[in-house]
Write a structure and sequence with these properties.
The chain is an alpha+beta fold and 235 residues long. A hairpin with a 2-residue loop joins β12 and β13. The N and C termini lie far apart (42 Å). The mean pLDDT is 91.
Length: 235
């Protein structure tokens, strides 16, 4: 039996003339409660991982569009400890072969020399954006998220000192920016999208954020992992 993916399982970014910004919004989750400010403070985040409540991730596996073997990967979910905590995100360069131009967490494939997922996430963050590990406190991990490209991604949540300095690897990263954590943990900013193509229905979240006069369009795997983070903190 063939192990090749069905043509209907082409990655969204490879669909003809696809732009996630133009796909209609089917719904916004304004009816769900936002995570309160007290629960987003560093001490509360540490405590949540030390004694997590019963909960389940909302999304854990994307529609497959690759026939290659599964590979382990990790991303850093860097919460910058400002008076109003933020999440540090990157915008990938447009020439990359996968997820070009998209908003993403720093991270990548796990190397054989990496001790664990946290090691991978910290190493990749240092390589991509120059974030020094001694300014980062890992506080926990989220359940894995399997992408359509067959990466089993462990989101590693960490607290980052606000006095950090970045040095972007301009081959991979076009920009780095921060989004308030309370914005991302408010479902009133979580939009549902769906698209029918080749007999298959694709669904995803987006969380557009206006950064001054520029829109930071957070969607796909990054938005899905943030949605799971919301479910974890609101459980």
């Amino acid at each position: 039996m063939s192990t090749d993916p069905d043509p209907a399982e082409t990655p969204l970014s490879k669909l003809p003339n696809f732009d996630p910004r133009t796909v209609p919004v089917l719904g916004i989750d304004s009816h769900l409660p936002a995570v309160g400010a007290q629960a987003l403070a560093p001490l509360a985040l540490r405590q949540r991982f030390l004694a997590p409540p019963p909960w389940q991730p909302e999304i854990s596996i994307e529609r497959r569009f690759s026939s290659r073997a599964l590979s382990n990967a990790a991303v850093l979910v860097p919460v910058v400890m400002r008076e109003r905590p933020t999440v540090l995100l990157t915008e990938r360069t447009t020439h990359l072969s996968t997820h070009s131009g998209q908003v993403a967490f720093p991270g990548g494939r796990q190397d054989d020399t990496d001790a664990d997922a946290a090691h991978t996430a910290l190493r990749e963050a240092q390589e991509e954006i120059g974030l020094q590990p001694d300014l980062v406190e890992v506080i926990g991990e989220m359940p894995t998220y399997t992408t359509g490209s067959r990466f089993v991604v462990t989101p590693v949540v960490a607290l980052v000192r606000p006095d950090h300095r970045l040095a972007l690897n301009t081959f991979e990263v076009a920009d780095a920016f921060e989004v308030p954590l309370d914005f991302l943990m408010n479902p009133a900013h979580h939009r549902h999208h769906a698209l029918e193509w080749a007999g298959a229905r694709r669904e995803w979240f987006s969380m557009p954020y206006m950064d001054g006069s520029s829109e930071r369009f957070i969607w796909g795997a990054t938005a899905a992992m943030l949605r799971n983070f919301y479910r974890f903190l609101s459980a």
